[in-house]
Structures are given as C-alpha cells and as structure tokens.
Fold this sequence. Notes:
This protein is mainly α. Among the domains are: 68-199 and 280-355, no CATH class; 200-277. The protein is built from 17 helices and two strands. It has helices at residues 4-27, 31-50, 58-67, 69-83, 91-108, 130-155, 160-174, 205-233, 241-264, 279-297, 299-309, 311-316, 321-347, 358-368, 380-399, 404-426, 433-451, and strands spanning 110-113, 116-119. It has a two-stranded antiparallel sheet. A hairpin with a 2-residue loop joins strand 1 (110-113) and strand 2. The longest helix is centred in the middle third of the chain and has 29 residues, at 205-233. The mean pLDDT is 86.
Amino acid sequence: MTDTAPAVEDGAVERSRRSWREFVTSSGIDTRLLGMVVALAVIWIGFDALSGGKFITSRNLWNLSVQSVSIGVMAAGMVFIIVTRNIDLSVGSLLGFLGYTMALIQTDGKISVLGLNLTLDTLKTHHWWTWILVLIVGIVLGALAGLMQGSIVAYLGVPAFIVTLGGYLAFRGLIFRTGGKQGQTLAPLDSTFQFLGGSPDRSLGDTKTWIVAILVCVGIVMSIVFSRQRRQRYDLPVRPMGMDAGFAVGGCIAVLLGIWLVAIKYKSPTTGEAVGLAYPVLILIGVGMLMTYLARRRRFGRYIFAYGGNPEAAELGGINTRRTIVSTYVVMGMLCAISAAIQTARLNSATTNLGVQNELDVIAAAVIGGTSFAGGIGTIPGAILGAVVMQSLRSGMSLLNIDSPSQDIVVGVVLVTAVAIDALLRLRRRRSLMGVLVGGVIIAAWVIQTGRP
C-alpha cells in the first residue's frame, strides 16, 4: 500500500499536466503572452503593496498608459528588425532629430538640415492643417533615414550594429545642426498638434471612450468569428464553440473593466469630468493592429519571419531578402517619427535630450515581449505589453523614490533575465527556467529595496 499510493499521486499529477497541455494546445493560447500578463499583474500588485496603494489607481494607470505609448510604438517596429536577426541602435537619436525638426517647422516655419533650408513663412502662423504637414514631413524623413540605413545593411553588407551605431551618433549630432539653433529648446507647439501627446484636458471624454470600448469589443468578437470561419473553410481543427464564446465574453469584460478603471474613473483635475482615453493610446492601438495585420496576414510579414527563421532557405525560396530588410528599417523610421510626434506634443517642446536611452527601452520591450535575437520569433502584442512592463517598472520605482542608477540596474537585470529565459527555451532546458526567473526577481527586488530612501 505504501508503494502504490505515491504512484497513484504521480499518475494524477501527470494526468493533470497532460490535460492542461491539451487545453493550452487546443485553445491556441500564446503561453509567452500569458506569462507576460501574469508578470505584469505581479509587478502591479507588488508596487501597489510597497507604495501603500498608490500604484493601482486610475490616475497612475492613466499616466502609465500614456507614458508607455512612445516606447510601445517603436517596439512594434523593433520586432521586425530583431526577427530578421538585425538591430537598430539609432531609434532614440532618430526620434530626437525628427522631433526637433517637426518642432522647428511649428516654431520657425522652416525645414533646415545641414545648411539646406526650406522656409515657408505661412507656417509661422499655425493653421488647422499644420499638424498634418508636420506629421507628413516627419514620417517622410523617418522613412528616408530608415531607407538609408537599411540599404547599407542589406546591399553593402555592413553589420547592422555598426550602421545603426553610426546613426545613433549622427542623428544625435544633427539635432545641434538643425535650424541653426545650436540645440535651443523649441516651444510652444501647435495647439492641435498637442493632442497627440495626451493630457487630461486633451482626451476623448467618457462618451467617445465608451464608443471606442464598444468598437473594440465588436472587433474582438468579429476576429474570433472570422478566424473560426477561416479555419473551417480550409478544414483545419477549430476550438469548441463554448471555448470561443468564453474567450469573446472574457475579452469584452476585460476591455470594459479596464476602460472603466483607467479612463472613466479618472476625473480631470480642472473640470472634474471623466478624462477618457488619451489620443496617444488610440494611436498605439492603431499601430498595434496595423503591425499585427502586416505580420500575420500580409506577404511582407511572412517574408520577415521566413527570413528570420532561415535566411538561406528564404533566399533560395525566391524571397527578395535585401528588399525585405530595407523595408523593415523604413517601417522602423516611420514609427520613430510617430513616436517623436507623441513625445514632443506631450512636452509641448523639443529639447536636445529627447529620446535619450529610448533605444535601450525599445530593445528591452521587444525582447521581454518574447522577440528572440535568434530570429524568426516575435509578436507585436508581446512587444507592446513589454513596453508596458518596462514603463510599469520605471513608474513604480519612481513612485517609491528609487534613485535613477538603481532603476537602470533593475532594467538591466530584467533584460538579461528575459534573454536568458529565451535562450533556455531554445535549448529546451525548461528545468533551469525557474532558477533563472527566481534569481532575476530576487536581484531586482534587492536592488529596489536598497535603493529606497
């Protein structure tokens, strides 16, 4: 009897594990994304306990959502770069240069780079279309910068690390050579342009926010329905109807609760009315949906992941690999322009230190979100969630008055831990995962505790 009891218990545990694996496989749940959600919940609960209930508040979460947008937008583009086994170290400096250029148009009515001046006196007076022109100029310049760097990487064979390191230095220097301002702060910016930055008084309000929430819920339901129909059309296995219904209902409930807690419950300090969603958050949602569509539904996205998985096979399969690499850098440059607009609009000014160290946060967000440096693996929602995790760490540590050096140490520990976990997953050494995870958490917690005043 004593020998059979442990065997029965082991069998029950094994059946439980097998049933859980079968459920996860049949449901199509992204386990990495699920792990990110759990980690984010732990971070929020931990900081809320340490701060005496100040972290999980509508005001703090609303600010957190706005602060995460800029890094999240660029992290979506960094996924494509890293998936193709490349890197872009210039995104922070490019953001600063583009932000400074867009601010120069609004303050001085001209575009000036390295002595090449284009002055438009009419821009000195802000018009309703000023912000549109500013965005177009920024996106075009970002695309050109990406085209230049991508072409050097793809067609000249120069390592991406070296090319983008040069861009990191060059674009930061160009800020001081733009407009002959020698790095002066440029302000104020166009009043309509400032809506891109987000503020309690420049948001959607409660009615428009609920409309957006309903549209998101409809989108969730329709995506599940269309995915089911598509799989049935090609005779692929589908999830049980009850499981799909549960995912639809659960997703809608999560969206509505999140909107209520973050956007509706937060009242404007000046008007006392519900603030609603900030416009930058809408931009991030739009960028995330577009990039996910490109990654999953378009040939361009399939080429990127095919090249990242096996470059030689992709080239032999007829994929224009050089053009694919160039395109990823063009997309990255355009997203840098969008992030630059968001940051400058939020500050209502452009300064020389705009975008400093953003490249580190962007790369960290993509990697923490599950993008592998080995290539071929990465998701856009994971990178955006990684940006939220990064900003949650910085926001929580700032709330606890942790000094800046300690914050950098924690971010470094989290990044190394995420890369180590990815390496262990690729090597199928799952037994070592828990040790690495626990070790990283202990070190980060110890740094946070010793960094408190």
